[in-house]
Design goal:
two-stranded antiparallel ribbon; mainly beta; single chain; 11-stranded mixed beta sheet; 0% helix
């Protein structure tokens, strides 16, 4: 868990999620960006549903974070604090090193794309070089293959989530297949 630094009431752990809805405004504005002492960068978002720590999500210009699927297009971040409902706001990491991205056991270093597991968690999966530019994640690189080690707060009971991966994030984004246009 990282602690954010800056001028708006920090330090604050990135694992903190708070109630948020149209009738309960967040104390921190959606879209606020902050860094921790290691230079990792986070953005404050509204979660649309339950999210697990380490899950990848996409977010729009209104900073609504939603599940990723096999045809996701848009900005990507890694959830830092578990949300048990849809009416919470919290931090996702968009830059730096994240050591606990959820993954299946087959994930290795190389090209990545998004995919949903059978358990409903959004995770990065390996992309084949033969698939062209279809829905690959630019700005996300797996430093390690999936580890079977999990820790409290991670979705360790999901049958398709068999470990965690260390990722380098550089403002990840997924664009549509540009090879067929």
């Amino acid at each position: 868990m990282a602690n954010l630094t800056g001028s708006i009431g920090y330090p604050q752990p990135t694992s903190v999620v708070v109630a948020y809805s149209s009738t309960i405004p967040a104390k921190i504005s959606l879209g606020t960006r902050a860094r921790d002492a290691q230079g990792n960068e986070y953005v404050y978002v509204d979660f649309d549903a339950t999210k697990a720590v380490g899950e990848i999500v996409t977010f729009d210009t209104d900073y609504l974070a939603t599940d990723c699927g096999v045809a996701t297009i848009g900005f990507i971040g890694v959830v830092c604090g578990e949300s048990a409902t849809s009416d919470v706001a919290g931090w996702i990491q968009i830059y730096g090193i994240h050591t606990g991205v959820l993954a299946g056991s087959a994930l290795t270093t190389g090209w990545l794309k998004v995919g949903a597991t059978t358990d409903g968690y959004s995770v990065p999966i390996n992309a084949s070089a033969s698939t062209g530019d279809t829905y690959k994640i630019a700005g996300m690189y797996a430093y390690t293959s999936a580890s079977t080690a999990t820790s409290p707060g991670y979705a360790s009971t999901a049958s398709s989530i068999l470990g965690v991966v260390t990722m380098m994030l550089n403002y990840p984004i997924v664009m549509a297949d540009i090879s067929s246009s």
